């Protein structure tokens, strides 16, 4: 599990294509890999990946085709910046919201509005997820825990403050960029519970 508070951005150093997956190497921010163990879970652009070793030189991961088809990991190139977060522990302060690292879909940046030192992003999403996305709810965007702004029928807005722009890769997004989206699991559970309850009352 993750908190959605990105600890820093890493840079892709190497990508190797294999038969049914890719191998990727990422340079990590200072002290990010401290006491990292082989098999540890790391959020990379919001995607939960398993560390292949202790990450002393580079963070190394294998990414299967299923993950590549649903996320923006397959669009990465050498030199790309990715958001990184270590998995939470019992003593972790959770400043965002709990995230699993299981991406629901990739959204596309439709519009970027710059307001002084802040930015507003408009993100397009598949309409089938509309019932889980509403204003003031939580959303995971490239691994960042954010609060939803205005929600339209197939797009939503998020508001980015200078701290988020400085620590993450969201400042480098452009119109047309793909971002990994994880819907809040609590929201899904509540919506599904209400739907099932209403269905039971009608039967």
Structural features, described:
Helices cover 15% and strands 39% of the residues. The model has no long low-confidence stretch (mean pLDDT 94). The longest helix is centred in the last third of the chain and has 18 residues, at 185-202. The chain is mostly beta strands and 203 residues long. The strands form two sheets. A six-stranded antiparallel sheet has the order 4-3-6-1-2-5. A six-stranded antiparallel beta barrel has the order 7-8-11-10-9-12. It folds into two domains: 8-86, Elongation Factor Tu (Ef-tu), domain 3 (Beta Barrel), CATH 2.40.30; 105-192, Beta Barrel (Elongation Factor Tu (Ef-tu), domain 3). The chain has helices at 65-70, 162-167, 185-202; strands spanning 8-17, 21-27, 41-44, 47-50, 59-64, 81-86, 105-115, 118-124, 138-141, 144-151, 155-160, 178-183.
Beta-strand share of residues: 35-45%
CATH class of the largest domain: Mainly Beta
The parts where pLDDT drops under 50 for at least 5 residues are none
Helix content: 10-25%
Number of helices: 3
Which structural class should the secondary elements be placed in? mainly beta
Overall structural domain count: 2
Can you tell me the overall shape? Answer: globular
List SSEs in N-to-C order.
Answer: EEEEEHEEEEEEHEH
Query: Mind summarizing the main beta sheet?
Result: 6 strands, antiparallel
Radius of gyration: 17 Å
Taking the alpha carbons of the first and last residues, their distance comes to: 37 Å
Trace the largest sheet across and list its strands.
4-3-6-1-2-5
Number of strands: 12
CATH architecture of the largest domain: Beta Barrel
Instruction: Determine the CATH topology of the largest domain.
Output: Elongation Factor Tu (Ef-tu), domain 3
Give the overall average pLDDT: 94
């Amino acid at each position: 599990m993750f908190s959605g508070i990105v600890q820093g951005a890493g840079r892709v150093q190497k990508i190797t294509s294999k038969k049914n997956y890719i191998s990727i190497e990422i340079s990590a921010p200072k002290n990010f890999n401290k006491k990292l163990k082989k098999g540890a879970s790391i959020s990379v652009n919001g995607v939960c990946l398993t560390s292949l070793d202790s990450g002393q030189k580079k963070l190394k991961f294998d990414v299967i085709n299923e993950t590549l088809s649903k996320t923006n990991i397959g669009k990465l190139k050498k030199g790309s910046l990715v958001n990184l977060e270590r998995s939470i522990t019992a003593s972790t302060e959770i400043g965002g919201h709990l995230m699993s690292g299981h991406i629901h879909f990739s959204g596309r940046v439709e519009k970027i509005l710059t307001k002084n030192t802040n930015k507003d992003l408009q993100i397009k999403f598949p309409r089938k997820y509309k019932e889980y996305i509403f204003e003031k709810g939580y959303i995971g965007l490239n691994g960042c825990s954010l609060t939803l702004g205005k929600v339209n029928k197939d797009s939503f807005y998020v508001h980015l403050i200078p701290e988020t722009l400085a620590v993450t890769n969201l400042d480098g997004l452009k119109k047309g960029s793909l971002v990994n989206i994880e819907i809040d699991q609590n929201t899904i559970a509540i919506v599904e519970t209400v739907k099932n309850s209403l269905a039971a009352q009608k039967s």
